[in-house]
Design goal:
A hairpin with a 2-residue loop joins strand 3 and strand 4. Helices cover 43% and strands 24% of the residues. It is an alpha+beta fold and 302 residues long. A 5-stranded mixed sheet has the order 2-1-5-4-3.
């Protein structure tokens, strides 16, 4: 006759204890999972805010520089000395009068160039060979390169606008620049010519702004009014094709989040830049914000 041993079989009380323990653990597990998910959601929300602020700050800084250029050109177009020089050169002023204009204008442009963040401020006046041959800040209107005059500049009614990037040579120095141009209209009826004020901003200066926050991994694209990428924070040869595609085909969606091969989940945002008609697109990988030290550092800076 076979006998079944009960050795190793838990008693009823032990089984009941184990069962109670399991039921007790279930709420704890659920709480842990929910807590993790809430922390993850909070971290994602914080990361989005940090990324959004980073893009907005870059756009604001570029917009401020561009607005400064526009304001400077507007003020110059109403400057009494510049208006007088424009009118006198239009009717072939005497040499002594022309020299007096040059001294005043040279002092004005020297001061402006030294006290601004612009690469150069220049004006194209009616040709007066003895003065407008300076070609540093003062040029003859005939020296305007047709290839560097925006089509809209030649269109009736277009008084100002942004143009670039293009290469410009000042003395022996060649730079790639963006230019805000503003027509200077004479208030006197006999003057048929229009002078032109140009405020130049170097590509290097704009890239300094795009790269200003070294604590955040990011890619920025500056887009003109035609939707063309005119400047980026990294060389074209190093732009990830997927990111480049997003810069061209970007569509707004909820939370502005998109997954990019090799970069993971990224935040992107398109922000208008001043009144230029240009836009800044920022693409910021989100994984970097999961480093607690970086989150703390960025919070301290806000």
């Amino acid at each position: 006759m076979m006998v079944f041993s009960r050795k190793g079989v838990p008693t009823i009380s032990l089984q009941f204890t184990i069962l109670l323990s399991i039921f007790a653990l279930i709420p704890i597990v659920i709480i842990c999972v929910l807590s993790y998910r809430m922390n993850d959601i909070q971290l994602t929300s914080t990361s989005i805010r940090l990324a959004e602020k980073a893009v907005s700050q870059v756009a604001d800084n570029i917009g401020t520089l561009m607005q400064s250029a526009e304001n400077t050109a507007s003020v110059l177009s109403k400057d009494a000395n510049l208006q007088k020089a424009h009118n006198d050169f239009s009717r072939e002023a005497s040499l002594s009068t022309a020299i007096d204009h040059y001294i005043r204008l040279n002092k004005l442009f020297t001061y402006l160039n030294l006290s601004s963040n612009f690469y150069n401020i220049r004006v194209y006046l009616p040709d007066y060979d003895r003065i407008t041959c300076e070609e540093y800040s003062i040029f003859g209107i005939s020296k305007l390169d047709d290839s560097k005059i925006p089509i809209t500049m030649k269109t009736e009614g277009q008084e100002s606008g942004w143009y670039g990037p293009y290469e410009f040579t000042r003395i022996s120095e060649k730079k790639t620049i963006f230019t805000y141009y503003h027509k200077l209209f004479s208030y006197e009826r006999y003057s048929k010519d229009n002078s032109l004020i140009c405020i130049d901003i170097s590509v290097e200066r704009l890239k300094e702004i795009l790269l200003q926050d070294l604590n955040i991994e990011s890619v920025y694209f500056l887009i003109d009014s035609n939707g063309k990428i005119i400047l980026s924070s990294i060389p074209d040869s190093k732009i990830n094709s997927a990111i480049y595609k997003i810069a061209n085909l970007i569509d707004e969606n909820e939370n502005n989040l998109v997954t990019i091969p090799g970069k993971g989940l990224c935040y992107y945002r398109r922000v208008p830049v001043g009144n230029s008609g240009w836009q800044l697109i920022g693409v910021i990988p989100m994984n970097q914000f999961r480093e607690n030290n970086k989150i703390i550092l960025l919070k301290l800076r806000t």
